[in-house]
Amino acid sequence: MRSILAAMMGALVGASMSSCGSSPSMPIGPSTPTSAAINLSGTWSGTGSDSFGPELVTWMLTQSGTSVSGTAELNAVNPADGSCGSCHKVKKGTFSGTLSGASLSVTMTFAAGGDVPTPICVVDLSGSATVLDRRMMASYTGTDTCEGFFSDGKIELTRQP
């Protein structure tokens, strides 16, 4: 008798639950917006220094997704000082990088040739940058086929209007 009573109670509870229908679910609102994606396209300029001395730096960048490319230009802070370092700071080349969050890999290549004081020298620099709103801070190392290794490279750039 108890098993019949238990079966009837189970059926009654099941019927009453199904007649109520499913409980309404909480509406799902839009997700919390994430911070805007970083767009590095534009002109960035600033100063830097490395084992060869100080420099002026300009990057003109274009971004497609996480890929960043463009031109890189180095100039001597004082081109008339006559130092070998200032000659090797006058370069025009290419920029490439990959953006991951606020971190940017950096590759600058300055091929031989062009209208620069040391056209026979090839310079390759690589490193990383951190993007902070309208500023970037980068570190790099590299080589110059005429002068040897660059070390302790630091660059601070600001996005130009």
Please characterize this protein's 3D structure.
By secondary structure, the protein is mainly beta. It has one domain: Lipocalin (Beta Barrel), CATH 2.40.128.30. It is built from two helices and eight strands. It has an eight-stranded antiparallel β-barrel with strand order 1-2-3-4-5-6-7-8. Strand 6 and strand 7 form a beta hairpin. The protein starts with a helix and ends with a strand.
What tags apply to this protein structure?
Lipocalin; globular; eight-stranded antiparallel β-barrel; 50% strand; 161 residues; mainly beta
Q: What is the CATH superfamily?
A: Avidin-like
Main beta sheet strand tally, sense and closure: 8 strands, antiparallel, barrel
Low-confidence blocks of residues: 15-20, 31-35
Do you know the CATH topology?
Lipocalin
- Give the total of domains: 1
The total beta strand count reads 8
Return the CATH class. Mainly Beta
Structural class: mainly beta
The percent range for helix content is 10-25%
Secondary structure blueprint with pairings:
Elements: H1 2-20, E1 42-50, E2 53-64, E3 67-76, H2 84-87, E4 91-100, E5 103-110, E6 123-132, E7 135-144, E8 148-159
Antiparallel strand pairs: 1-2, 1-8, 2-3, 3-4, 4-5, 5-6, 6-7, 7-8
